[in-house]
Amino acid sequence: MQINYRQYPHPVLSYFADDVIDSDFQASLKSTKTQNTYIFETYCVTSCDGINQLIAEKKARFALHFECSTTRFRKVFASFESNFTFQLPADSIEGKVQICSFILAAENIDNYSLPEFHPDYEGHSFIIKKGDVLAIDAERTFFAEKEIDPLKRIPSIFSVQPNRNENALPFDMDSSGHKIVIKLSEDNFEHYKTISLNQNLQPLLSSLIIMPALVSILEIIKNAEDQDFDPEECRWYQVIKVRLKELGIDVENKNTFSDSTLAIAQKLIGDPLTVSLLALVNFEDED
């Protein structure tokens, strides 16, 4: 949910405007997860006495809006209490979730006016409808990760597909989706399918296909600040981010990338080159 100040035809207490002066509104959110449920504990507070009075009179209430683009889940959780808890099924959200915190009108208000309004609004009142925004906090994001996720394994975040374009490159890659799609020319894809049938040559495919793609991806992550592409919403990024953290590498701190991306890639998926060479040696011996 994109927050846009121009949506509001009346004074709104916010972090981006001075419609309501000497006042602020903040909401904190703490989450825990059971096997099937997310539990959120929320604490909201505003220093605006006028809005606090409306909440006490049950004319306004605190609210959090959840929106998940992956599952298309959208819901508002609201309460007159400053500290409240709510739950939602774990399978209702997945990946990046946008959370917006508000104070909303709980009923129609014919003459909305607060002592804290900016002097420019002196002598003016506004017609407020039920559900209108009276205050808003900065948007935040939450990443909902499945407890059992097949994409936990690094190789499974890749998908190998044929590139049927007339001028297809022998090897190409698309990292804009939830999986990293490796595109092979039609001939190379047919060779790939044939080799993949031989279990002993699986490490060879990792060396030839997965390893260079993973090195390229690590370069993207390492230099994310210098690129227009933001991988945050991609599930492959979240999987690699977790694995890198286990290796002591913080994707937001370039200084932790002390090794080359090639060395890091080998740590992530093992040493496919050595296994591939041994497989080829054994294959030659068998011949």
Any overview of this molecule?
The chain has 287 residues and is α+β, with helices and mostly antiparallel strands. Helix content is 26%, strand content 30%. Helix 3 (202-222) packs across helix 5 and helix 3 (202-222) packs antiparallel against helix 6. The longest helix is centred in the last third of the chain and has 21 residues, at 202-222. The protein is elongated. 25% of the residues are buried. Mean pLDDT is 86; it is low at 148-152.
What would the keywords be for this entry?
elongated, alpha+beta, 287 residues, five-stranded antiparallel β-sheet, 26% helix
Helix content: 25-40%
Q: What would you report as the Rg, rounded to the nearest angstrom? A: 26 Å
Helix and strand composition category: alpha+beta
How would you state the average pLDDT, rounded?
86
Biggest sheet details: 5 strands, antiparallel
From the N-terminal CA to the C-terminal CA, the straight-line distance is 62 Å
**Helix count?**
6
Give the number of DSSP strands: 13
Strand content: 25-35%
Question: Secondary-structure element sequence?
Answer: EEHEEEEEEEEEEEHHHHH
The 3D shape can be described as: elongated
- Spans of at least 5 consecutive residues whose pLDDT stays below 50 are 148-152
